[in-house]
Amino acid sequence: MAKKRPQTRATRPQLTDGEIPVVGAREPCPCGSGRRYKACHGRAAAHAVTELVHRPFEGLPGECDWVALRELVPAATVELPLKDGLPEDVPSVTLATVLPMAWPALRRDDGSVLLGLQNDTASGDISRDLADTLQRALTAPPGTPVQARRAPADGPRLQDLLDAEGTFEPVVHSGFEFWIPDTENATPEVTASLERANAAAIPTVKLAGVDAAYWCETPEKNHLRWVMPHPEEQLLDALARLHAAGRSSLGEGTRLVGSFRAHGLTVPVWDLPTGVGADDVEKPAAEFAERLAAALSSDAPLTAEERRARGGLTNRQVTLS
Questions:
Q1: Which domain of life is it from (predicted)?
Q2: DSSP letter for each residue of 273-300
Protein backbone atom coordinates (compact mmCIF):
# COMPACT_ATOMS: atom_id res chain seq x y z
CA MET A 1 0.00 0.00 0.00
CA ALA A 2 1.44 3.31 -1.05
CA LYS A 3 2.41 5.74 1.62
CA LYS A 4 0.17 8.76 2.00
CA ARG A 5 1.79 11.93 0.85
CA PRO A 6 2.19 14.34 3.75
CA GLN A 7 -0.37 17.12 3.71
CA THR A 8 1.04 20.59 3.25
CA ARG A 9 -0.66 23.87 3.98
CA ALA A 10 -0.21 26.97 1.96
CA THR A 11 1.96 29.38 3.84
CA ARG A 12 0.54 32.77 4.66
CA PRO A 13 2.58 35.95 4.85
CA GLN A 14 3.43 36.85 8.42
CA LEU A 15 1.79 40.01 9.68
CA THR A 16 3.10 42.27 12.38
CA ASP A 17 0.79 43.24 15.24
CA GLY A 18 0.30 46.67 13.74
CA GLU A 19 -0.89 45.20 10.40
CA ILE A 20 -3.56 42.88 11.83
CA PRO A 21 -7.03 44.31 11.15
CA VAL A 22 -9.91 44.21 13.63
CA VAL A 23 -12.49 41.51 12.81
CA GLY A 24 -15.41 39.89 14.61
CA ALA A 25 -14.58 38.24 17.92
CA ARG A 26 -15.56 34.74 16.69
CA GLU A 27 -13.89 35.02 13.27
CA PRO A 28 -10.49 33.45 12.54
CA CYS A 29 -7.68 35.80 13.53
CA PRO A 30 -6.18 37.46 10.42
CA CYS A 31 -2.68 36.63 11.70
CA GLY A 32 -3.14 33.04 10.48
CA SER A 33 -2.81 31.35 13.87
CA GLY A 34 -5.98 29.33 13.36
CA ARG A 35 -7.49 30.65 16.57
CA ARG A 36 -10.50 32.91 16.86
CA TYR A 37 -9.73 36.61 16.94
CA LYS A 38 -10.99 37.06 20.52
CA ALA A 39 -8.54 34.37 21.75
CA CYS A 40 -5.60 35.72 19.76
CA HIS A 41 -4.85 39.33 18.81
CA GLY A 42 -8.33 40.42 19.88
CA ARG A 43 -7.31 39.92 23.50
CA ALA A 44 -4.68 42.65 23.31
CA ALA A 45 -7.02 44.94 21.36
CA ALA A 46 -9.80 44.52 23.94
CA HIS A 47 -7.37 45.15 26.78
CA ALA A 48 -6.14 48.34 25.11
CA VAL A 49 -9.71 49.56 24.70
CA THR A 50 -10.84 48.85 28.26
CA GLU A 51 -7.69 49.58 30.28
CA LEU A 52 -8.30 52.66 32.40
CA VAL A 53 -5.68 55.38 32.31
CA HIS A 54 -5.71 56.73 35.86
CA ARG A 55 -4.46 60.23 34.98
CA PRO A 56 -5.32 60.83 31.32
CA PHE A 57 -4.28 64.51 31.38
CA GLU A 58 -0.97 64.01 33.18
CA GLY A 59 1.85 65.88 31.46
CA LEU A 60 -0.41 68.43 29.78
CA PRO A 61 -0.15 72.11 30.75
CA GLY A 62 -2.99 72.85 33.17
CA GLU A 63 -3.77 69.26 34.16
CA CYS A 64 -5.91 70.45 37.09
CA ASP A 65 -7.96 72.71 34.84
CA TRP A 66 -8.42 69.89 32.32
CA VAL A 67 -9.98 67.85 35.13
CA ALA A 68 -12.15 70.77 36.25
CA LEU A 69 -13.45 71.41 32.73
CA ARG A 70 -14.13 67.72 32.23
CA GLU A 71 -16.06 67.22 35.49
CA LEU A 72 -17.08 70.49 37.15
CA VAL A 73 -17.47 73.45 34.79
CA PRO A 74 -20.57 73.75 32.60
CA ALA A 75 -19.43 76.25 29.97
CA ALA A 76 -15.81 77.10 29.21
CA THR A 77 -13.38 77.30 26.30
CA VAL A 78 -9.59 77.16 25.93
CA GLU A 79 -7.41 77.86 22.90
CA LEU A 80 -5.21 74.81 22.22
CA PRO A 81 -1.73 75.24 20.68
CA LEU A 82 -0.61 72.29 18.56
CA LYS A 83 2.92 70.89 18.79
CA ASP A 84 3.46 71.17 15.03
CA GLY A 85 1.45 74.37 14.59
CA LEU A 86 -1.94 74.81 12.97
CA PRO A 87 -2.63 73.57 9.43
CA GLU A 88 -2.92 76.41 6.92
CA ASP A 89 -6.67 75.98 6.55
CA VAL A 90 -7.36 75.78 10.32
CA PRO A 91 -7.30 79.25 11.92
CA SER A 92 -7.74 77.96 15.50
CA VAL A 93 -8.39 74.92 17.69
CA THR A 94 -10.57 75.51 20.74
CA LEU A 95 -11.41 73.08 23.53
CA ALA A 96 -15.00 73.44 24.75
CA THR A 97 -16.63 71.75 27.71
CA VAL A 98 -19.71 70.81 25.66
CA LEU A 99 -20.76 71.22 22.02
CA PRO A 100 -24.28 71.40 20.54
CA MET A 101 -26.02 68.07 20.04
CA ALA A 102 -23.19 66.52 22.16
CA TRP A 103 -20.93 66.44 19.08
CA PRO A 104 -17.40 65.20 19.86
CA ALA A 105 -15.99 67.95 17.63
CA LEU A 106 -17.03 70.48 15.02
CA ARG A 107 -15.22 71.95 12.02
CA ARG A 108 -16.80 75.36 11.54
CA ASP A 109 -17.50 77.01 8.21
CA ASP A 110 -14.37 79.15 8.58
CA GLY A 111 -12.22 76.04 9.11
CA SER A 112 -11.72 76.50 12.86
CA VAL A 113 -12.11 73.46 15.12
CA LEU A 114 -14.08 73.04 18.35
CA LEU A 115 -13.23 69.95 20.41
CA GLY A 116 -15.74 68.76 23.03
CA LEU A 117 -14.35 67.57 26.37
CA GLN A 118 -17.33 66.21 28.33
CA ASN A 119 -18.46 63.54 25.87
CA ASP A 120 -18.55 59.82 26.62
CA THR A 121 -15.48 58.05 25.28
CA ALA A 122 -15.08 54.54 23.88
CA SER A 123 -11.96 53.45 25.74
CA GLY A 124 -10.32 53.82 29.11
CA ASP A 125 -7.95 56.52 27.81
CA ILE A 126 -9.74 59.84 27.42
CA SER A 127 -6.57 61.44 26.09
CA ARG A 128 -6.27 58.98 23.19
CA ASP A 129 -9.96 59.28 22.33
CA LEU A 130 -9.79 63.09 22.29
CA ALA A 131 -6.62 63.05 20.19
CA ASP A 132 -8.30 60.81 17.62
CA THR A 133 -11.31 63.14 17.47
CA LEU A 134 -9.03 66.17 17.13
CA GLN A 135 -7.05 64.64 14.27
CA ARG A 136 -10.23 63.83 12.37
CA ALA A 137 -11.64 67.32 13.00
CA LEU A 138 -8.52 68.96 11.52
CA THR A 139 -9.23 67.31 8.15
CA ALA A 140 -13.04 67.27 8.24
CA PRO A 141 -14.89 69.33 5.61
CA PRO A 142 -15.72 72.83 6.92
CA GLY A 143 -19.20 73.09 8.35
CA THR A 144 -19.45 69.48 9.58
CA PRO A 145 -19.48 67.80 13.00
CA VAL A 146 -17.16 64.89 13.78
CA GLN A 147 -18.86 61.70 14.92
CA ALA A 148 -17.70 59.43 17.73
CA ARG A 149 -15.74 56.23 17.08
CA ARG A 150 -13.36 53.85 18.82
CA ALA A 151 -9.85 55.26 18.59
CA PRO A 152 -7.06 52.97 17.36
CA ALA A 153 -5.25 51.40 20.31
CA ASP A 154 -1.90 52.61 18.98
CA GLY A 155 -3.08 56.10 18.04
CA PRO A 156 -1.55 59.30 19.44
CA ARG A 157 -2.65 60.92 22.69
CA LEU A 158 -3.21 64.61 23.42
CA GLN A 159 0.28 64.67 24.92
CA ASP A 160 1.62 63.81 21.43
CA LEU A 161 -0.37 66.50 19.61
CA LEU A 162 -0.45 69.53 21.91
CA ASP A 163 2.41 71.93 22.59
CA ALA A 164 3.84 70.95 25.99
CA GLU A 165 5.23 74.47 26.41
CA GLY A 166 1.93 76.15 25.63
CA THR A 167 -0.45 77.70 28.13
CA PHE A 168 -3.86 76.44 29.22
CA GLU A 169 -6.05 79.38 30.18
CA PRO A 170 -9.76 78.55 30.49
CA VAL A 171 -12.37 81.20 29.82
CA VAL A 172 -15.53 80.45 31.79
CA HIS A 173 -18.79 81.55 30.13
CA SER A 174 -22.20 82.24 31.64
CA GLY A 175 -23.83 80.28 28.80
CA PHE A 176 -23.14 78.50 25.53
CA GLU A 177 -23.51 81.37 23.06
CA PHE A 178 -19.94 80.68 21.92
CA TRP A 179 -21.42 77.74 20.00
CA ILE A 180 -23.08 79.98 17.44
CA PRO A 181 -21.12 82.87 15.90
CA ASP A 182 -24.10 83.65 13.66
CA THR A 183 -27.37 83.00 15.49
CA GLU A 184 -29.51 83.96 12.49
CA ASN A 185 -28.19 81.00 10.48
CA ALA A 186 -28.34 78.40 13.28
CA THR A 187 -30.48 75.33 12.66
CA PRO A 188 -33.56 74.81 14.85
CA GLU A 189 -31.90 71.72 16.37
CA VAL A 190 -28.81 73.67 17.43
CA THR A 191 -30.92 76.57 18.73
CA ALA A 192 -33.00 74.18 20.83
CA SER A 193 -29.83 72.48 22.14
CA LEU A 194 -28.46 75.91 23.11
CA GLU A 195 -31.61 76.79 25.03
CA ARG A 196 -31.55 73.49 26.94
CA ALA A 197 -27.87 73.84 27.80
CA ASN A 198 -28.24 77.42 29.01
CA ALA A 199 -31.19 76.44 31.20
CA ALA A 200 -29.16 73.69 32.89
CA ALA A 201 -25.88 75.61 33.36
CA ILE A 202 -24.85 76.31 36.97
CA PRO A 203 -23.29 79.80 37.39
CA THR A 204 -19.54 79.18 37.76
CA VAL A 205 -16.51 81.46 38.20
CA LYS A 206 -12.80 80.58 38.09
CA LEU A 207 -10.84 82.19 40.93
CA ALA A 208 -8.03 84.47 39.77
CA GLY A 209 -5.70 84.21 42.77
CA VAL A 210 -5.17 80.42 42.94
CA ASP A 211 -4.97 77.65 40.36
CA ALA A 212 -7.92 75.46 39.30
CA ALA A 213 -10.40 76.65 41.96
CA TYR A 214 -14.00 77.17 40.79
CA TRP A 215 -16.84 78.87 42.66
CA CYS A 216 -20.35 77.82 41.75
CA GLU A 217 -23.85 78.90 42.77
CA THR A 218 -26.65 76.45 43.54
CA PRO A 219 -30.17 77.15 44.85
CA GLU A 220 -29.45 76.09 48.45
CA LYS A 221 -25.81 77.11 48.95
CA ASN A 222 -22.68 78.00 47.04
CA HIS A 223 -19.55 75.87 46.74
CA LEU A 224 -15.86 76.13 46.02
CA ARG A 225 -14.37 73.11 44.22
CA TRP A 226 -10.59 73.17 43.96
CA VAL A 227 -8.66 70.63 41.85
CA MET A 228 -5.25 70.03 43.43
CA PRO A 229 -2.14 68.36 41.95
CA HIS A 230 -0.69 66.91 45.18
CA PRO A 231 -0.50 63.14 45.81
CA GLU A 232 -3.76 62.06 47.42
CA GLU A 233 -2.40 60.61 50.66
CA GLN A 234 -0.15 63.61 51.30
CA LEU A 235 -2.98 66.04 50.54
CA LEU A 236 -5.46 64.25 52.83
CA ASP A 237 -2.92 64.31 55.66
CA ALA A 238 -2.42 68.04 55.17
CA LEU A 239 -6.15 68.74 55.03
CA ALA A 240 -6.63 66.67 58.18
CA ARG A 241 -3.97 68.70 60.02
CA LEU A 242 -5.71 71.94 59.08
CA HIS A 243 -9.19 70.57 59.80
CA ALA A 244 -8.21 69.34 63.27
CA ALA A 245 -6.66 72.73 64.01
CA GLY A 246 -9.81 74.58 62.91
CA ARG A 247 -7.96 76.18 59.99
CA SER A 248 -9.59 74.46 57.01
CA SER A 249 -12.42 76.92 56.39
CA LEU A 250 -12.49 79.87 53.98
CA GLY A 251 -14.06 82.28 56.42
CA GLU A 252 -17.14 82.61 58.60
CA GLY A 253 -19.94 80.21 57.66
CA THR A 254 -17.78 78.20 55.24
CA ARG A 255 -16.87 74.55 55.74
CA LEU A 256 -14.61 71.94 54.14
CA VAL A 257 -17.08 69.12 53.57
CA GLY A 258 -15.10 66.48 51.69
CA SER A 259 -13.52 65.83 48.33
CA PHE A 260 -13.90 64.17 44.93
CA ARG A 261 -11.45 61.92 43.15
CA ALA A 262 -11.36 62.74 39.45
CA HIS A 263 -8.93 61.47 36.82
CA GLY A 264 -6.21 60.75 39.36
CA LEU A 265 -6.46 64.06 41.23
CA THR A 266 -8.21 65.12 44.44
CA VAL A 267 -10.80 67.92 44.51
CA PRO A 268 -11.56 69.36 47.97
CA VAL A 269 -15.02 70.95 48.28
CA TRP A 270 -16.19 73.76 50.57
CA ASP A 271 -19.78 74.72 51.34
CA LEU A 272 -20.30 78.48 51.27
CA PRO A 273 -23.25 80.57 52.48
CA THR A 274 -25.59 81.73 49.72
CA GLY A 275 -24.41 85.32 50.03
CA VAL A 276 -20.72 84.46 49.54
CA GLY A 277 -19.67 85.13 45.95
CA ALA A 278 -16.52 84.35 44.01
CA ASP A 279 -14.89 87.69 44.85
CA ASP A 280 -15.53 87.07 48.56
CA VAL A 281 -13.41 83.90 48.59
CA GLU A 282 -10.45 85.16 46.55
CA LYS A 283 -8.47 86.38 49.58
CA PRO A 284 -9.47 83.50 51.91
CA ALA A 285 -8.50 80.98 49.21
CA ALA A 286 -5.07 82.57 48.77
CA GLU A 287 -4.54 82.51 52.53
CA PHE A 288 -5.66 78.87 52.68
CA ALA A 289 -3.14 78.01 49.94
CA GLU A 290 -0.36 79.31 52.21
CA ARG A 291 -1.63 77.26 55.17
CA LEU A 292 -1.91 74.18 52.97
CA ALA A 293 1.65 74.56 51.68
CA ALA A 294 2.94 74.59 55.26
CA ALA A 295 0.84 71.53 56.18
CA LEU A 296 2.05 69.66 53.09
CA SER A 297 5.64 70.20 54.14
CA SER A 298 5.13 68.44 57.49
CA ASP A 299 6.10 64.77 57.78
CA ALA A 300 5.20 64.40 61.47
CA PRO A 301 2.86 61.49 62.31
CA LEU A 302 -0.81 62.49 62.57
CA THR A 303 -2.15 62.96 66.07
CA ALA A 304 -5.22 61.07 67.22
CA GLU A 305 -7.40 64.11 66.53
CA GLU A 306 -5.87 64.55 63.08
CA ARG A 307 -6.48 60.88 62.28
CA ARG A 308 -10.14 61.30 63.23
CA ALA A 309 -10.35 64.36 61.00
CA ARG A 310 -8.74 62.42 58.15
CA GLY A 311 -11.20 59.57 58.60
CA GLY A 312 -14.09 62.00 58.37
CA LEU A 313 -12.71 63.49 55.15
CA THR A 314 -12.11 60.12 53.50
CA ASN A 315 -15.56 58.85 54.50
CA ARG A 316 -17.05 61.74 52.55
CA GLN A 317 -14.87 61.21 49.49
CA VAL A 318 -16.58 60.46 46.16
CA THR A 319 -14.90 59.08 43.03
CA LEU A 320 -16.09 60.73 39.82
CA SER A 321 -13.84 58.84 37.41
A1: Bacteria
A2: -TT--HHHHHHHHHHHHHHHHHHHT--S
